[in-house]
Write a structure and sequence with these properties.
- The complex is a heterodimer of chains A (279) and B (412).
- With 279 residues, chain A is mainly α.
- Chain A is built from 11 helices and 6 strands.
- In chain A, strands 1-2 form a two-stranded antiparallel ribbon.
- In chain A, strand 3 and strand 4 form a beta hairpin.
- In chain A, helix 3 crosses helix 10 and helix 8 packs antiparallel against helix 10.
- The longest helix of chain A is centred in the last third of the chain and has 33 residues.
- Chain A is flat and about 80 Å long.
- Chain A starts with a helix and ends with a helix.
- Chain B has 412 residues and is an all-alpha fold.
- Chain B folds into 2 domains: 267 residues, Cytochrome Bc1 Complex, Chain C; 124 residues, no CATH class.
- Chain B contains 16 helices and 2 strands.
- In chain B, helix 6 crosses helix 7 and helix 6 runs antiparallel to helix 9.
- At the A-B interface, helix 1, helix 2, strand 1, helix 7 and helix 11 of A face helix 4, helix 5 and helix 10 of B.
Chain lengths: 279, 412
């Protein structure tokens, strides 16, 4: 019996290892030169809030996407109709406000721009974004969207912390205002995690660190908080795009699991009953 | 009525006899443990893969232009298409997880020893077929990782001296990986390989039922029989094993369904993130990794970094990798031990088996990460210890001291 338990735990731990693999693998790509707000980590993405059940957030995200992104970036594997249903936007309202040109409600969501011309203009055709959140992870997208800054050395006048020398213009600059890469005096952190102090005066020691992002006051249509929320909504929308049936899938999954628990319990009782014959 | 129908069939086909021999009355040793479940679960996964595969096939388009979009069509527009696809992707990983457990069980209890050599060889062939099925199936979605994994694996054939380049062109059917390559891999994946797999699995089970199941003690249960000629230490498959297996299948499906519905990507192990991008032959991904079930062998491939005897490092790596998979087949003839089960084998056998398991896991890990000089050295060391289990086996099994094997199976 002891050996059975031992082997059972071995098997279970192996299965658990496979099941928990999602915890150990890093999701998405690391975030280039992105510097965290406290100035301590570089290249790690900001955590995005993703909630497929927050319909209001998804609706706002869809609004931003259709108005600002779709000109260049298609969602060519998804259909308008499905988006309107999933996001609970009435068909007529969706048709009037979120579909441009002569596209039909049942069509795939294509960009307005011809990819060949786009390649000439930007050096690279803007990628389709249906699966971008799966490819790079929502955290990357959120960090990227909030990491544009003015850089006169670039052809389009802007650069990005997360995606160095990206060929994309800062489409949302009117919304955000003028973002700049600035330097700040940051407290020095000792190896034990505390803040370094001058041993004589007790003053905190600081060090200049560069690469923080700041928006010029009053240049944007939105406050920094509003813009941040808009980008979270947009990220949430793209996460939904990659995995549009997440909620349905998990609902069905729960029922399947419930069924299997009952099935397994009954089959265990049956097994136990027959096992009595053997010993 | 039922008896009448059965009699009608029995006069024309050994129906009852076959059912009794292979199912209801098949004598299974009473001391079989949890390790013996992998076999029946593999059959379950085989059925899952065949069924889900057929449904995927109804909507998949095997062309370089349409393959990637057709997968997204299945995921979004086909009713419950995503369930079918996730079933198939999760099933692929489950297949390998289970076959590794199944093979390890055989190695642990000496299930490859006489008279089960052929059974072991047939099982090894199913493992080979599974490796090929995994590879060909992985290319079909035509994502970035599909394309570049195909590129890397196929280029290995190009490293063969003299004939390599021509052979490579012949295998690809083109001068680079293209729609033509996709089409032939598709044909293999949906016709040739599954047919072969079903046939070999069928013969594998036939051979098993001929020689009978081994057991954790590795004793021959056929030595002691009752007056009807049924081995004493066995129980009929029906109803004892069938109820046991049903319970096990329930537990297994709970794990399976949890991954399938709640973690379908498996953290990038079941479906790689890079494969969310369509194949692009002008853009190489930063970090090409195979699926997790090939990573031990991928680590071996990369561990060979030096040319030898005028052969390139790449070719030698290919040879080592192939040998790592092939060497399992030699086990029945490498093991000189008078006992089967690890329970009665000596300490050397236990040590080398443990070393093998550790090597397998470490190599598996090393295959998933980028290589550094330190990691390459580690991969080289563990490749050697991996092979040590096999190549030193004739020596350590012959000279080590074994424990006495009991006549009858031990319980508890």
């Amino acid at each position: 019996m002891k050996k059975t338990i031992l082997s059972a735990s071995l098997l279970a731990s192996l299965i658990a290892l496979i099941a928990s693999a999602n915890l150990s693998a890093a999701a998405g790509a690391p975030c280039g030169n992105y510097l965290s707000e406290d100035g301590l980590t570089k290249g790690e993405c900001k955590e995005a809030y993703v909630d497929a059940s927050d319909k209001a957030s998804l609706q706002r995200g869809a609004q931003v996407y259709m108005n600002y992104c779709l000109g260049c970036h298609s969602l060519k594997y998804a259909r308008y109709k499905k988006v309107s249903e999933d996001l609970e936007i009435p068909l007529s309202m969706f048709q009037d406000n979120l579909i441009f040109g002569d596209q039909k409600i049942g069509d795939l969501i294509l960009a307005g721009m011809d990819p060949k011309e786009a390649k000439e203009w930007f050096g690279n055709a803007p990628p389709d974004l249906t699966l971008e959140a799966g490819l790079r992870g929502p955290d990357w997208i959120y960090s990227y969207l909030t990491s544009f800054y003015i850089d006169e050395s670039r052809p389009l006048g802007v650069n990005n912390k997360v995606y160095e020398n990206v060929g994309m213009p800062h489409v949302l600059i009117d919304m955000q205002g003028t973002p700049r890469s600035v330097c700040r005096q940051m407290p020095l952190i000792a190896s034990n995690g505390g803040i370094k102090q001058d041993p004589l005066t007790g003053e905190q020691l600081t060090q200049e660190k560069c690469g923080f992002l700041e928006v010029d006051n009053g240049t944007g249509e939105m406050t920094p908080e509003e813009f941040d929320q808009a980008m979270l909504d947009l990220t949430n929308f793209l996460a939904y795009m990659t995995d549009p049936l997440k909620i349905e899938r998990e609902t069905i999954g729960t029922y399947v699991l419930l069924y299997l628990f009952i099935f397994t319990m009954l089959s265990y009782l049956l097994y136990r009953e027959f096992k009595k014959d053997l010993h | 009525m039922v008896t009448k129908i059965m009699n009608w069939f029995d006069d024309r086909l050994p129906l009852t006899a076959t059912i009794e021999r292979h199912l209801t009355k098949y004598p299974a040793p009473i001391n079989m443990n949890i390790w013996y479940l992998a076999g029946v679960l593999l059959v379950v996964v085989l059925v899952i893969q065949l069924a889900s595969g057929i449904w995927l096939l109804m909507n998949y388009e095997p062309t370089a232009e349409g393959a990637f979009a057709s997968i997204q069509y299945i995921m979004r527009d086909v009713e419950y298409g995503y369930i079918i696809r996730y079933m198939h992707t999760t099933g692929a990983s489950a297949f390998f997880a289970l076959i590794f457990l199944h093979m390890f069980r055989g190695m642990m209890y000496g299930s490859y020893q006489k008279p089960r050599e052929l059974l072991w060889v047939l099982g090894w062939i199913t493992y080979l077929l599974l490796c090929m099925l995994g590879f060909t199936g992985y290319v079909l979605p035509w994502g970035q990782m599909s394309f570049w994994a195909a590129q890397v694996i196929m280029s290995l054939f190009g490293s063969i001296p003299y004939i390599g380049e021509d052979l490579l062109t012949w295998i690809r059917g083109d001068y680079l990986i293209s729609g033509i390559t996709l089409n032939r891999l598709f044909a293999f994946h949906v016709v040739l390989l599954p047919l072969a797999l079903i046939a070999v699995v069928f013969v594998h089970i036939l051979a098993l039922h001929e020689v009978g199941s081994n057991n954790p003690d590795g004793v021959d249960v056929k030595k002691f029989k009752d007056e009807d000629g049924v081995p004493l230490d066995t129980k009929p498959f029906f109803p004892y094993d069938i109820t046991h297996d049903l319970y096990a299948i329930g537990v297994f499906l709970i794990f399976f369904v949890t991954i399938m519905f709640f973690y379908p990507d498996g953290g990038g192990y079941v479906i790689e993130y890079v494969n969310y991008e369509a194949a692009d032959n002008l853009k190489t991904p930063e970090h090409i990794v195979p699926s997790w079930y090939y990573t031990p062998y991928y680590a071996m491939l990369r561990a060979v970094t030096f040319p030898l005897f005028g052969l390139t490092a790449k070719f030698l790596g290919f040879v080592v990798m192939a040998a790592g998979i092939a060497i399992f087949v030699a086990l029945p003839w490498l093991d000189r031990s008078p006992v089967k089960s690890i329970r009665y084998k000596g300490n050397y056998s236990k040590f080398f088996l443990a070393l093998f398991v550790v090597s397998f896991f470490v190599l598996g890990y090393l295959g998933t990460v980028t290589s550094t000089p330190g990691r390459t050295l580690a991969a080289q060391i563990f490749t050697v210890t991996y092979f040590a289990y096999f190549l030193l086996m004739p020596i350590y099994t012959k000279y080590e001291k074994c424990k006495p094997v009991p006549d009858r199976v031990q319980l508890g």
